[in-house]
Predict the structure of tRNA modification GTPase MnmE.
Amino acid sequence: MDFKTNQDTICAIATPVGEGGIGIIRISGPEAVGIAQQLFRPTTSTLSLKSHRLYHGWILDPSTRQRVDEVLLSYMAAPRTYTREDVVEINCHSGYAVLERILELAIRAGARLAEPGEFTRRAFLSGRIDLSQAEAIIDVIHARSEKSLALASRHLSGDLRDRILQWREVLLQFQALTEASIDFSEDLEDASSDSHLAISIQDLDKQVIAPLKELLDHFERGRVLREGITLVLVGKPNVGKSSLLNALLGKDRAIVTPVPGTTRDVIEETFLLSGILVRILDTAGIRHSPDEIESIGIERTLRSVEDADVVLWLMDQSRPLTEEDDTIYASISSSRHMLLLNKHDLPPAFSMEEAVEKYPSAAGAMELSALNSSDIERLREQLSESFLKQPLESCNATLISNLRQRDCLERAMDALLRGKELLLAGGYGELVTEEIHLARQQLESVLGWNEDEDLLDRIFSQFCIGK
Ligand code: GDP
Ligand code: ZN
């Protein structure tokens, strides 16, 4: 479907069903006012609706003249609206039956049920927002932590777009320069004697390549703010993994028992640490086992260790180290890990020094008791300090928030570096221009310029209906 030319009028329930005391039906498109006039009877005898006003009244079923619900209706005339089209919003008493009834009446009056994200897609197609902002709206809707919300809001304000437009401007100037040199290349004796061009290579470096590189380097931090980090708890049975998980979550999520091997499957939970979402997996122990169910659990453990940002290796300090600890060490030593010596309240069977000496890559070891709340607080601080400090520091910088944006920017970077190399090798002309052109196109792709329908479908289908 071509959304640009076929501007019919769409409608949807714009609020989550069953939540809050009020529900909103949003109608957008050329027929929005006409549809509203068919369904709505204002309390006062106003016949024509004025833009950006709120009206009190009733929704009537036009076929029966029956009152459906008492509502507040707002009308916003194009173009100062979310979609840049005429928009009518009907605020009614929530409850699914009422919302669905009004939606049905709007459809009967000539609107079409909106597809997921279609309102935002129209805002994008009308040029009100760029694609990085549309993606930010998805992020705001899906944001589960304070920090990911902050990141999304910054994108929504057009932070990334502003920088990209700046770089694009430099590339356009540069392109004009190199094109000029193609035209006059016969008059030039030596490319390097062209001082204009020499200056602009430096400009390209300083104004585009360097800041773009910095942005790409920070991608990982953006990912942490957006998606959070994943911790995996490993350790022998009965060392206190489930107890620690519960203490971090502050509730009784995993079953804690004095019998070894109870946590056979991988349990996943999330909690907030310094405003960042932390996924934590409690795993079955890593050990050789004849028990089939337990073996499956162990396999899953090994797989989650591979995916983890940080492995928390928990030991019971009141019991001696065994061969099993060597097995665990072998399977986690190539991952980023932290050693936790639990049950510090009991008499120790070995010291922290002994453990660190035996397993040297386990940096940042810490003694604690999972049953002691001030120890848990200390652990939270340590985790935040060790693994979240960098992402938190870059909280106010512009960041890339998804893979699509990163891929475009990486391709732009590759093209720029190829172009620069050609220039430094003394060559200029069409090849350079082509690379600069390619880089510019990739920058524009981040904003959704020249994007095809398939990509837009993929992005906007992540929205829910009504957004
Ligand atoms: P898991 O098998 O590693 O998940 O271990 P659990 O969390 O099920 O704990 C096994 C046993 O150790 C339970 O009886 C816990 O109450 C106990 N436990 C856990 N942490 C501590 C601790 O710090 N000190 C003491 N004394 N007991 C603990
Ligand atoms: Zn457990």
Remarks:
- The radius of gyration is 30 Å.
- Residues 235, 237-243, 256-258, 263, 342-343, 345-346, 369-371 surround guanosine-5'-diphosphate (ligand 1) (CB under 6 Å).
- The mean pLDDT is 82.
